[in-house]
Write a structure and sequence with these properties.
alpha+beta, 3-stranded antiparallel sheet, 47% helix, ATP-binding, WH-like_DNA-bd_sf
Length: 93
Amino acid sequence: PAKRNRIYERYVLAAKRIDADVRTDRTIHNRLSQLTLKGFLDVREQNKGPKGGSYYEYEFSIRADIVRDVLQGDSRLQELFDGIDGDMTLDKF
Protein backbone atom coordinates (compact mmCIF):
# COMPACT_ATOMS: atom_id res chain seq x y z
CA PRO A 1 0.00 0.00 0.00
CA ALA A 2 1.07 3.59 -0.61
CA LYS A 3 0.04 6.93 0.82
CA ARG A 4 -1.34 9.59 -1.50
CA ASN A 5 1.65 11.90 -1.10
CA ARG A 6 4.05 9.07 -1.99
CA ILE A 7 1.99 8.23 -5.07
CA TYR A 8 2.08 11.89 -6.08
CA GLU A 9 5.87 12.07 -5.64
CA ARG A 10 6.33 9.01 -7.87
CA TYR A 11 3.86 10.43 -10.39
CA VAL A 12 5.82 13.70 -10.64
CA LEU A 13 9.08 11.79 -11.21
CA ALA A 14 7.46 9.62 -13.89
CA ALA A 15 5.77 12.56 -15.64
CA LYS A 16 9.02 14.51 -15.79
CA ARG A 17 10.92 11.47 -17.03
CA ILE A 18 8.59 11.08 -20.01
CA ASP A 19 8.31 14.85 -20.52
CA ALA A 20 4.59 15.03 -19.73
CA ASP A 21 2.75 17.92 -18.10
CA VAL A 22 2.65 17.51 -14.31
CA ARG A 23 -0.84 17.79 -12.85
CA THR A 24 -1.59 19.17 -9.39
CA ASP A 25 -1.80 17.08 -6.23
CA ARG A 26 -5.56 17.72 -6.15
CA THR A 27 -5.99 16.39 -9.70
CA ILE A 28 -4.12 13.19 -8.82
CA HIS A 29 -6.19 12.84 -5.63
CA ASN A 30 -9.35 13.09 -7.74
CA ARG A 31 -7.99 10.45 -10.15
CA LEU A 32 -7.24 8.11 -7.24
CA SER A 33 -10.81 8.59 -6.01
CA GLN A 34 -12.16 7.79 -9.49
CA LEU A 35 -10.02 4.66 -9.74
CA THR A 36 -11.26 3.58 -6.31
CA LEU A 37 -14.90 4.08 -7.31
CA LYS A 38 -14.34 2.08 -10.51
CA GLY A 39 -12.79 -0.81 -8.57
CA PHE A 40 -9.18 -0.50 -9.74
CA LEU A 41 -7.87 0.57 -6.31
CA ASP A 42 -8.66 -0.29 -2.72
CA VAL A 43 -8.33 2.45 -0.14
CA ARG A 44 -7.82 1.93 3.57
CA GLU A 45 -7.88 4.61 6.25
CA GLN A 46 -5.03 4.41 8.74
CA ASN A 47 -5.22 6.16 12.09
CA LYS A 48 -1.98 6.51 14.03
CA GLY A 49 -3.48 8.38 16.96
CA PRO A 50 -3.22 12.04 17.94
CA LYS A 51 0.44 12.41 16.98
CA GLY A 52 0.41 10.32 13.81
CA GLY A 53 -2.92 11.52 12.47
CA SER A 54 -5.03 9.66 9.96
CA TYR A 55 -4.28 9.07 6.30
CA TYR A 56 -5.33 6.86 3.41
CA GLU A 57 -3.34 4.07 1.80
CA TYR A 58 -4.07 2.92 -1.75
CA GLU A 59 -3.45 -0.49 -3.25
CA PHE A 60 -4.32 -2.17 -6.54
CA SER A 61 -7.53 -4.19 -6.30
CA ILE A 62 -6.72 -5.80 -9.65
CA ARG A 63 -3.66 -7.84 -10.56
CA ALA A 64 -0.59 -5.61 -10.83
CA ASP A 65 0.80 -7.71 -13.69
CA ILE A 66 -2.23 -6.81 -15.82
CA VAL A 67 -1.70 -3.10 -15.09
CA ARG A 68 2.00 -3.42 -15.91
CA ASP A 69 1.29 -5.21 -19.21
CA VAL A 70 -1.18 -2.53 -20.31
CA LEU A 71 1.12 0.33 -19.35
CA GLN A 72 4.13 -1.31 -21.00
CA GLY A 73 2.11 -1.50 -24.20
CA ASP A 74 2.00 2.31 -24.36
CA SER A 75 5.13 3.48 -26.20
CA ARG A 76 5.14 6.79 -24.30
CA LEU A 77 5.66 4.93 -21.02
CA GLN A 78 8.21 2.36 -22.17
CA GLU A 79 11.25 4.02 -20.59
CA LEU A 80 9.57 3.90 -17.17
CA PHE A 81 9.83 0.12 -17.34
CA ASP A 82 13.38 -0.19 -18.68
CA GLY A 83 15.43 -2.10 -16.12
CA ILE A 84 12.46 -2.83 -13.85
CA ASP A 85 12.02 -6.34 -12.53
CA GLY A 86 9.77 -7.88 -9.91
CA ASP A 87 6.27 -6.85 -8.90
CA MET A 88 4.80 -3.46 -9.70
CA THR A 89 3.16 -1.59 -6.86
CA LEU A 90 1.84 1.92 -6.42
CA ASP A 91 5.02 2.71 -4.54
CA LYS A 92 7.44 1.67 -7.31
CA PHE A 93 7.31 1.16 -11.05
